[in-house]
Design a protein that fits this description.
- By secondary structure, this protein is an alpha+beta fold.
- Helices cover about 35% and strands about 25% of the residues.
- The strands form three sheets. A four-stranded antiparallel sheet has the order 1-6-7-5. A four-stranded antiparallel sheet has the order 2-3-4-8. A two-stranded antiparallel sheet has the order 9-10.
- The radius of gyration is 20 Å and the shape is elongated.
- The chain binds a DNA duplex through helix 8.
Length: about 260
DNA sequence: CGGCATGTTGCGCA
DNA sequence: TTGCGCAACATGCC
């Protein structure tokens, strides 16, 4: 599921399902994901959902008493909506049942195969949330700020783009796509990039993120969402050269050796 | 069976 | 201090 775009879609769903509703039932079957059930229940039961926000890959459900529930989808997490009478999903880890003002009931289930996701109830914003960098959708992309970020680190440009404390929400898929779009070798040391290249990266983020949000909303198959990601050995959609794969930060990174050549 | 996977954290090492 | 490589986490899927 997770990258800024899929998390934003999850946010829209949760807002639709939960906003204005009152929590009537809470289950947390997996301590690894949600901690002990009791504190979660205490934080949510009887509370009304005021808003659902997103920053980077984190979701925040705000309650009318000032409490908040943070949700990270990890690698395989997702929220789905069911009826309260429906049996648990196969990989369900938690559920929040709510009653809307008109009396309509919903059962919102957290599903997560690998259980890397997290549910954290808190009374204030947690560091994982407050320490996030600029979010491309919420804050826009500023070329000068991006230039400062890139030049203040001596790291592969892809690592910088994926650093959540610097830019929030860019993961392996989006970083791969952004650099393909900008025609930049992902291994390029970030502080050697020149202004025109940085401008191309900024433009690529502004283009790729909203476009992928539309693609993901339309449920386009993943192979149509991305030009390079998971396409090693296949022809570059731009020039036909075989895409190559390297390992960077322990992640598979695909790029075109011809149009993403280092200058 | 082996290998790979959208994320994050923590450790050893240069 | 900074950055890199890698293992770990736990499970599904091809």
């Amino acid at each position: 599921m997770p990258e800024l775009t899929d998390v934003e879609i999850a946010r829209r769903h949760l807002e639709d399902w939960l906003k204005g509703a009152t929590v009537a039932r809470v289950e947390a079957s997996d301590e690894r994901v949600a901690g002990a059930p009791a504190p979660l229940r205490r934080a949510l039961l009887g509370k009304r959902v005021r808003a659902v926000r997103r920053r980077g890959k984190w979701l925040k459900i705000e309650l009318d008493d000032g409490g908040r529930l943070f949700s990270h989808l990890g690698m395989t997490g997702d929220w789905v909506c069911r009826k309260p009478t429906d049996s648990p999903e196969r990989l369900e880890r938690a559920r929040i049942d709510v009653v809307q003002r008109g009396g309509r009931t919903r059962s919102v289930r957290y599903v997560d195969a690998r259980r890397f996701g997290r549910l954290i109830a808190a009374r204030q914003d947690i560091p994982e949330w407050t320490e996030l960098g600029a979010d491309p959708l919420l804050d826009g992309v500023d070329v000068r700020r991006l230039e400062t970020l890139l030049q203040s680190h001596h790291r592969a440009v892809k690592s910088v783009l994926m650093d959540q404390a610097l830019l929030a929400g860019i993961g392996n898929m989006l970083a791969t796509e952004v650099l393909w779009h900008a025609r930049i070798d992902p291994r390029t040391p970030s502080d050697t990039l020149k202004r025109p290249e940085i401008a191309r990266i900024a433009k690529a983020i502004e283009t790729v993120v909203p476009r992928d949000l539309r693609e993901a909303s339309a449920q386009s198959p993943p192979e149509r969402r991305f030009a390079a990601y998971r396409r090693a050995g296949k022809p570059c959609p731009r020039c036909g050269t075989k895409l190559v794969s390297v390992s960077l930060d322990g992640r598979t990174t695909v790029f075109c050796p011809r149009c993403q050549a280092r200058s």
